[in-house]
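Quick start: what a row looks like.
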Amino acid sequence: MKEHKTDVIAGLGISLSVAFPALVYFGRDYLTPQVLAVVLLLLVWARRRTAFAGQAAHWFLAGGLVLAMLGLVSNDSLPLKLYPVVFNASLLTVFLLSLRYPPTIAERFARVRFPNPPAPVVTYTRRVTQAWCVFFAGNALIALWTTVWCPEYVWFYYNGVIAYILAGGMFGGEWLVRRRMFG
C-alpha cells in the first residue's frame, strides 16, 4: 500500500512539473503568484524523491523551496518562472558530479541491463553523460534568458513546449545511436 501511495505522489509530482509552465502562464490571470507558489511547494514536495533516485533531490528541493518562498513573500511570478532554470541546473549538477565521481548517470542506467558493461559501453555512457551536461546547461541558460528578457509567451512556449520536444529528441536520438552502436 505504501509503495502505491509513493507511486501516486511521484506521478503527481511529475505531472505538476510538466504542467507547471502552462499553469503559470495560463493561470496568471486567475491565480495570484502566491497561490502558484503553493503549487510549486506541492510540486517540490512530490518530486523530492523522484529525480534520479534522490541524487538531484537536494539541489532541486533547496532551489524549489527558495523560489516558492520568494514567490510567496513577493507575490511576484518571476521566482516561479525560474523553476525550469533550477530544474535544469539541478540535473546538470548531478550529471557533472557523476562525471567526477563515476559511474556516470548514463552508466548507472546501462548497468540495470548490463551489470558489468564492457569498456566501450562505459566510454559511450561517459560521452552520453557529457552530452546531457551540455543539454542541461544550454537549457538552463535559455530558460534563464526567456525568464528575464523575453515576453511571457516566449517563456511559456520555450519552457512549456520546446524544451520538452528538445529533451525528447535528445533522448530519442541517443537511443537510435545506441541501437546502431550496440544492437
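That is the whole record. The CA atoms of residues 128 and 134 lie 10 Å apart. Residues 119-149 form the longest helix (31 residues).
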